[in-house]
Amino acid sequence: MIQQFSTLKRTGFSILLTLLLAIPAFGAVSAAPAPQTTPDSTAFAADMTECVGGFAMTVRNGTNTSKSFGGVLRLRANSAGDLRESELAIDGGGTAKVTGTVTGQAVAMVFDLGNNTVMFGVGVMQKSLAECSGIAAGPFVGPEKDDRGDWDWFEGSIDARRN
């Protein structure tokens, strides 16, 4: 029990530290410029921005070590940065509802895999969501309590990124 609490405490501290280090790099929240429309970025109602890209997650430590999966991540955010109607279409079938926030180039996501199974990821995007280009990456936890890993989101084919 003490070992589980210690692991949980270290994990919580790692996530908090990651978020705290990311916030100063992006400065204060300000009004976002009007989104650029590209083939992968679309403005919704004056308030929504969408960006779609290839996505991959790999568990590095825990019950599911070395397991990975990928798919297509569609992020939709309102002008406040809240992720709405976002989802991960998983290769081989299935989807995960995605909620969270985007602030400048920082992103925090909750992946709801169903059946009370969730994964949490934080990270940094190379460019803003409205620009919808470049890469993004960061750590995640889940789906098992002891699972830890990393994720990345990118333009182009998911197969090209995994090689």
Question: Would you give an account of this structure?
Answer:
With 163 residues, the protein is an alpha+beta fold. Helix content is 18%, strand content 48%. It contains two helices and nine strands; from the N terminus they run H-E-E-E-E-E-E-E-E-E-H. The chain has helices at 2-26, 158-162, and strands at residues 41-44, 48-61, 68-78, 82-90, 95-103, 106-114, 117-125, 136-141, 148-154. An eight-stranded antiparallel barrel has the order 2-3-4-5-6-7-8-9. A hairpin with a 3-residue loop joins strand 1 and strand 2. The longest helix has 25 residues, at 2-26. The termini are far apart. The relative contact order is 0.20.
Shape: globular
**How many β strands by DSSP?**
9
Distance between the termini: 40 Å
The pLDDT mean sits at 77
Largest sheet: 8 strands, antiparallel, barrel
H/E element string? Answer: HEEEEEEEEEH
Number of helices: 2
Task: Give helix % range.
Answer: 10-25%
Please supply descriptive tags for the structure shown above.
48% strand; 163 residues; alpha+beta; 9 strands; 18% helix; globular; disordered N terminus; disordered C terminus; 8-stranded antiparallel barrel; 2 helices
Write the layout of secondary structure elements.
Blueprint: H1 2-26, E1 41-44, E2 48-61, E3 68-78, E4 82-90, E5 95-103, E6 106-114, E7 117-125, E8 136-141, E9 148-154, H2 158-162
Antiparallel strand pairs: 1-2, 2-3, 2-9, 3-4, 4-5, 5-6, 6-7, 7-8, 8-9
